[in-house]
């Protein structure tokens, strides 16, 4: 088996093991047994389970960026683009939370563990939201005094929902919660008139 193929197989099997048992309970031995190879074979490709887990998380981050970019690339209207960005982002996160159910209790404990990856994603996310808002201001769709602060607020709201999604919100309630949050973001809480 080629080196690249073996690495892919390790990642695929490890993802299943992490999904079933969580990060803390997963061991290199469990991964090697499920894969049908010796532990030393795993160590040839990865230094430890943390190294494998980081690879999985990096791929998840790349996947969400790719999905967001693909979903909004043809949308001309900035409001629709921002709504679609939000929708894709939160649904992707819900899918990850469902896939990694055992991580719910580890969510905050392991947050520092993936800090660098998260920081890079957060930077991307802020820049993408800011870009959409700037486009909306240029096209006269948004009336915003401080683009940077607005982008920060939207990204913070999305991040704030992550824990709720990971621990409490069910798929059937996600759409309603997203719609409510988007309404607040776009239309505020004060009645006009």
UniProtKB/TrEMBL annotation:
Gene3D superfamilies according to UniProt: Homeodomain-like (1.10.10.60), Tetracycline Repressor, domain 2 (1.10.357.10)
Domain spans labelled HTH tetR-type: 4-64
Coiled-coil ranges from the UniProt annotation: none
MF terms in GO: DNA binding
Entry annotated with the keyword DNA-binding: yes
Alphabetical UniProt keywords: DNA-binding
PROSITE patterns per record: HTH_TETR_2
One family name in Pfam for this protein: TetR_N
SUPFAM superfamilies (UniProt xref): Homeodomain-like, Tetracyclin repressor-like, C-terminal domain
Taxonomic superkingdom: Bacteria
InterPro entries to which the protein is assigned, alphabetical: Homeodomain-like_sf, HTH-type_Tx_Regulator, HTH_TetR, Tet_transcr_reg_TetR-rel_C_sf
DNA-binding region: 27-46
Protein name according to UniProt: TetR/AcrR family transcriptional regulator
Species annotation: candidate division WOR-3 bacterium
Lineage, opening ranks: Bacteria, Bacteria division WOR-3
